[in-house]
Design brief:
Layout (H helix, E strand, L loop, with lengths): L1 E7 L4 H4 L13 H11 L9 E4 L3 H10 L5 E3 L16 H7 L3 H6 L12 H19 L4 E6 L1 H10 L11 E7 L7 E8 L13
Parallel strand pairs: 1-4, 2-3, 2-4
Antiparallel strand pairs: 1-5, 5-6
Helix pairs in contact: 2-3, 6-7
Length: 204
């Protein structure tokens, strides 16, 4: 098995505006850049065999700041969920146009946001992504994987754990055994920003 530390990217400009992103490619905000630089110091004691990131720029840039000088391997399969028609909107705007649908989606009563990615398809995609990464780093390999909050939640559900809403630069360790019947085992939760400082972004 491989050991992957899956970390949510730093705050993006759309996070700051509380806009749903999905596949939209918003950059890091100034705060997001600061978060990632601060978090890098907390990773200096870890020896990663490789560093991976989603293909969206908020994840790629976070990876560059967390692991300066390292090659970043882009893995498109671990990009965020496509939220379809909700992309670019705030929660309030979504509720006004689709009353009750956010809660219906979150509780599994509808399979996807309108025009967005099906829950099962999204989870299957990101599991394939981390299995692909695990294959590349090899048995007992250790990798940093910069992804998105929705990706970490999907991996937690696939590992039969409660899905958590992590702050920016929050993450979780996963042991991944490619090809196994249950390929994921969730490990420790990490927070790479100090919650007492202003560099922690709000969770919403």
């Amino acid at each position: 098995m491989a050991h992957l530390l899956c970390v949510r990217h730093g705050e993006s400009t759309w996070n700051a505006d509380k806009r749903w992103q999905g596949w939209a490619d918003a950059p890091l905000s100034d705060l997001g850049e600061e978060q990632a630089r601060e978090a890098a110091a907390r990773l200096t004691g870890l020896a990663f065999d490789a560093v991976f990131a989603s293909d969206l720029q908020r994840a790629r840039r976070t990876a560059e700041l967390l692991a300066p000088g390292r090659d970043i391997v882009v893995e498109p399969l671990v990009r965020e969920r496509d939220v379809g028609d909700w992309s670019g909107l705030t929660t309030q705007e979504i509720e006004s146009r689709w009353p009750g649908q956010i809660e219906a989606w979150r509780t599994g009563r509808i399979p996807s946001p309108p025009g967005g990615e099906d829950n099962g398809e999204f989870t299957a995609r990101v599991v394939r992504g981390v299995e692909h990464i695990a294959t590349r780093v090899g048995d007992d390999g250790v990798a940093l994987v910069v992804v998105h909050g929705g990706v970490v939640r999907a991996l937690e559900r696939a590992a039969d754990e409660d899905a958590l809403t992590l702050p920016n630069l929050g993450g979780r360790w996963f042991d991944v055994t490619p090809g196994a019947g249950s390929p994921l085992r969730a490990g420790d939760i990490v927070r790479l920003t100090d919650p007492t400082t202003p560099t922690e972004a709000p969770v919403f």
